[in-house]
Design goal:
Helix content: 40-55%
Radius of gyration: 26 Å
Structural class: mainly alpha
Number of strands: 8
Strand order of the largest sheet: 1-2-3
Shape: globular
CATH superfamily of the largest domain: Intergrase catalytic core
CATH architecture of the largest domain: Orthogonal Bundle
CATH topology of the largest domain: hpI Integrase, Chain A
Largest sheet: 3 strands, antiparallel
Length: about 375
């Protein structure tokens, strides 16, 4: 019996001219012809770019030969194709950091040297020559951690302890420092609120007295409110024209509403031309209500100028959420209730919630199951 040598196959990249779609054609283990879609001609204008995109598909189908060196770019391609977070804003942040990492380490063989990575994190700079902040450098380390984990998951490198866990992000004196959190006092918030009317007043109330993220606030529809139970159901986010799921699983939750906020909401609903249950609460009239207003534009054109006129620092939406969190601590709200109201995921969040408040010390127990409202303390003396 004549033995035939097993041939290594990579498949071939082919453009179907009828639909202008690139395919990877190959034979499976039984010799049957197969084809996997790579993308359109518009996405990959040349065969070279289509072949580069096909690398991740080849790795998934054929695997990596034992002992074959695996470069970071190869892992990154497959990670983007198969494991990149689908949420728009999360994926955008990952892609931005991934671009920086690939520029330096794309052609390097995994696993990377922890000492070499730590030295790079100390020196890495932006295009303008400015050093990255420590927070940004921590994000770069996280991407490298993720890519090494992905390489092990894809069985492209041996499964061992992640070498990037040994890397410490060094403190660099010349690097820009993180901006201090802006937290408003109750009197400062009253000054700010007095500058707003109508729709914009409702926005400020929701951000500062319910603690909504801007993506959650601009994703609200009238159907999300239960007026009888005085609560709102946070179940989506909307950023930069994209409607998406909430930031975390625990962010998808129902929150209590103070009667004053309900009154402001109902008053705005009477004024708004978009008042059907399916309409966005803050619908854009320019887009005929099909999408909400842009949170960045509202911050730039209204929130920041109004805060300056009120004698405060220029504010962003997150400053109002930080203020809400602080007011909860000042009111004596226990860590578990704070976590529930802020809708945070982390297991160590309780200690951090207290450290974020104005010097308050954590209590041993929550104050029952009553859900406090920042409006109560704002209306008080």
């Amino acid at each position: 019996m004549k033995l035939r040598r097993k041939r290594h196959q990579d498949g071939s990249v082919y453009l179907d001219p009828r639909v202008n779609i690139w395919y990877l054609r190959y034979r499976d283990a039984d010799g049957n012809r197969k084809a996997e879609r790579i993308g359109t001609k518009k996405e990959y204008s040349t065969k070279t770019s289509a072949q580069e995109a096909a690398v991740a598909i080849r790795d998934r189908i054929f695997g990596v030969e034992k002992g074959e060196p695996v470069m970071l770019d190869r892992v990154a391609d497959r990670y983007v194709a198969e494991r990149m977070p689908v949420r728009h804003t999360t994926g955008r942040g990952y892609r931005g950091k991934l671009k920086i990492v690939r520029a330096k380490w794309g052609k390097s063989v995994l696993p990377l040297s922890p000492s070499a990575v730590e030295l790079w994190l100390k020196e890495v700079k932006k295009i303008n020559g400015e050093l990255y902040s420590k927070k940004s450098r921590e994000h770069l380390k996280s991407i490298l951690l993720i890519l090494h984990e992905a390489a092990m998951f894809f069985e492209m490198i041996p499964i061992t302890a992640n070498p990037m866990a040994l890397v410490k992000v060094p403190t660099v004196k010349a690097a820009p420092k993180s901006k201090p959190r802006i937290v408003l006092t109750k009197d400062e918030f009253r000054l700010l609120l007095a500058r707003f009317t109508g729709m914009y007043r409702v926005m400020v109330l929701l951000a500062a007295c319910v603690g909504l993220r801007r993506s959650e606030m601009f994703g609200l529809r009238w159907s999300d409110f239960n007026w009888l139970l005085r609560e709102v159901f946070i179940q989506r986010s909307h950023v930069e024209g994209y409607e998406d799921e909430t930031k975390t699983e625990s962010s998808n939750a129902k929150l209590p509403l103070h009667p004053a906020i309900i009154e402001a909401l109902l008053e705005w609903r009477l004024q708004s031309p978009f008042h059907a249950d399916s309409d966005y609460v803050f619908a854009s009239p320019i887009l005929d209500g099909e999408k909400p207003l842009n949170s960045n534009s509202v911050q730039r054109d209204y929130l920041r100028p109004k805060s300056i006129k009120a004698g405060l620092k220029p504010l962003g939406w997150h400053a109002l959420r930080h203020s809400y969190r602080t007011w909860l601590g000042e009111k004596g709200t226990g860590p578990e209730v704070q976590k529930e109201l802020m809708r945070l995921d982390y297991c160590d969040v309780a200690g951090r919630l207290w450290s974020w408040s104005s010097g308050s010390e954590p209590g041993s127990e929550c104050h029952g199951r009553k859900r406090p409202s920042a409006m109560n303390s704002l209306n008080g003396p």
